[in-house]
């Protein structure tokens, strides 16, 4: 019979619509404005007495508290009004002092029964939800210095293996200088080193006492090193951000030596900077013997006890670059530790170094690059400048009991939080060069709320105009199209929520465009039905022919638009991707509602009935 669906198809449409309704519902429960209290050092303690003082202080300031939630490493204070967030943050910061980080946040308010169905609201982008924006600068000079130090260490090891004696090593600018007792040793070393290190230009010079070999790294090698440093840092930062669990972050290169990082929904800048900006790395070195020459040793303090120090060999066994995986746990005494797995090369080097040094101490050196602000007088005016510096400290000095392989552990850490962060940094990869914060900006939730209101207004205006047009043009069938349009919007929101897609302002523009395009299919179908009626077909035949003959045109039009959206997604970044995702999902939901839902409504109203006239 014409214009009748089997029962299973009606049930399928009903199930899809109900699922769409359920998974779009969380978006009706906007997150609560909140203030989060945590510790700048990672460890956190706050007692009930302090919380009561905070409640009293906020109440006296006229700030309405919705709820206070204690979490493992922080306290979350939910507020009733977004405008109170900044006032509450400033008041709490003044009470607690500098030992705590008080940050703006957004706390989800989805009902528990929806959370039990894994239903959650759409993720909002930086322009809607707020978050942090970092502009990081890569220290290319430090990258070059690190590379030269590694090469110098490898050169010294090569000379020792070949029993060629040298006196001193110096690194200055782009050059490495080695001093030898005589020209014969220098020439022999030059032939050996030049074969293993082709990225240097070599020159022989006379020294006051002996002969000197000067090696200058080539410009091509410097350029390759800089590109490698940027690309490696991009990969490492993306891994770190992914470990943080931030939805749809932006990590991209800007210019020759800068990287932009945007973290939507993150208001705790201290925690974000501690992970993203950390340049911590490890070096494994042997402790120096008493008879080791002074120019081959360096003295470092212990990180948790600066008054204690140890003398280590300048040569590095391996660095954090050789770590394949790392995770934190506790030893048999309940102290935090980091379990490390090395890659193949790192395991070989570690085994070679420890196999021949059983009974000797090996140190784990923790290296962190930081910056501090210094004030200098320039032309009689105080100018604040950023000065980079490096902290090095021993976190572990243990005796080698047996030859180590690819797996071992690091102890001597201060807290479980420090162990977790060190494991994260090692697991995500070491930075190829230090990075410094050239700019940081926090986008508050209040600005995002204003953008959301404007976006919702644009969707409402677009929806209203389409609804009015369809009602005036197609009468009863316009009602069918408008109902399908509302269901289409519901399904689109549900799909974005389920897939975890991020909604941005360009994404809202995609929704508005989807609303305008969603009725295209209905317009094609309804106009085709009108044409069939004018040719003299019966109502049932005209309805059937209208849907059947318009199907090909609808598919062709939407497929081409979908291909364009996929191209935008594949080559675009940031806002362009957000627009492409929304448009792609909108096309798919529009096809379903136009071809299935409106057909089901038409079949239920007119299918199998003796209708002589259509209001279309």
From TrEMBL:
Location of the Protein export membrane protein SecD/SecF C-terminal domain: 438-601
One GO term describing the cellular component? plasma membrane
Q: What is this protein called?
A: Protein translocase subunit SecD
GO term, biological process aspect, one: protein targeting
The UniProt entry, under SUPFAM superfamilies, shows:
Multidrug efflux transporter AcrB transmembrane domain (SSF82866)
* NCBIfam families attached to this UniProt entry: 2A0604s01, secD
Could you list this entry's UniProt keywords, alphabetically sorted. Cell membrane, Membrane, Protein transport, Translocation, Transmembrane, Transmembrane helix, Transport
Describe the task this protein carries out.
Part of the Sec protein translocase complex. Interacts with the SecYEG preprotein conducting channel. SecDF uses the proton motive force (PMF) to complete protein translocation after the ATP-dependent function of SecA.
Q: How does it assemble?
A: Forms a complex with SecF. Part of the essential Sec protein translocation apparatus which comprises SecA, SecYEG and auxiliary proteins SecDF-YajC and YidC.
Membrane topology according to the record: Multi-pass membrane protein
Q: Which residues form the Protein translocase subunit SecDF P1 domain?
A: 230-287
InterPro entries given in the database record? SecD (IPR005791), SecD-TM (IPR027398), SecD/SecF_arch_bac (IPR022813), SecD/SecF_CS (IPR022646), SecD_1st (IPR048631), SecD_SecF_C (IPR048634), SecD_SecF_C_bact (IPR055344), SecDF_P1_head (IPR054384)
Q: Principal place where this protein is found?
A: membrane
Query: PANTHER family per the record?
Result: PROTEIN TRANSLOCASE SUBUNIT SECD, PROTEIN-EXPORT MEMBRANE PROTEIN SEC
Compartments annotated for it: namely: Cell membrane
**Family, similarity comment:** Belongs to the SecD/SecF family. SecD subfamily.
Q: Which Pfam families match?
A: Sec_GG, SecD-TM1, SecD_1st, SecD_SecF_C, SecDF_P1_head
Does the record carry Transport as a key word?
yes
Query: What GO MF annotations does this protein's record show?
Result: protein-transporting ATPase activity
Species assigned in the record? Halomonas ventosae
Task: Identify the residues that the record assigns to the SecDF P1 head subdomain domain, covering every copy.
Answer: 299-433
Give the source lineage, highest ranks first.
Bacteria, Pseudomonadati, Pseudomonadota, Gammaproteobacteria, Oceanospirillales
The SecD export protein N-terminal TM domain is annotated at 2-104
Per the UniProt record, which residue ranges are transmembrane? Answer: 455-472, 479-501, 507-529, 550-572, 578-602
